[in-house]
């Protein structure tokens, strides 16, 4: 598969100490802090990390881990979609 960049944002909300992946605009407004990570899963590289707000080191680590895991999961789904489209193209 060609290299694609996948990005995910994770925000920490003060309410109930929640962490949300790919928040809505309203959730972004209510955040304590956020972490955005962009990666190229095909070669296991991270192309960008952006943090904003106030997060303690444990929250930063947790948000980075969740965001990276989300990127890998999203990449697997994208690969499955591309593979299924390639099979359909071959059949026709």
UniProtKB/TrEMBL annotation:
<protein>
    <submittedName>
        <fullName>3' exoribonuclease family protein</fullName>
    </submittedName>
</protein>
<dbReference type="InterPro" id="IPR036345">
    <property type="entry name" value="ExoRNase_PH_dom2_sf"/>
</dbReference>
<feature type="domain" description="Exoribonuclease phosphorolytic">
    <location>
        <begin position="4"/>
        <end position="69"/>
    </location>
</feature>
<dbReference type="InterPro" id="IPR027408">
    <property type="entry name" value="PNPase/RNase_PH_dom_sf"/>
</dbReference>
<dbReference type="Pfam" id="PF03725">
    <property type="entry name" value="RNase_PH_C"/>
</dbReference>
<dbReference type="InterPro" id="IPR015847">
    <property type="entry name" value="ExoRNase_PH_dom2"/>
</dbReference>
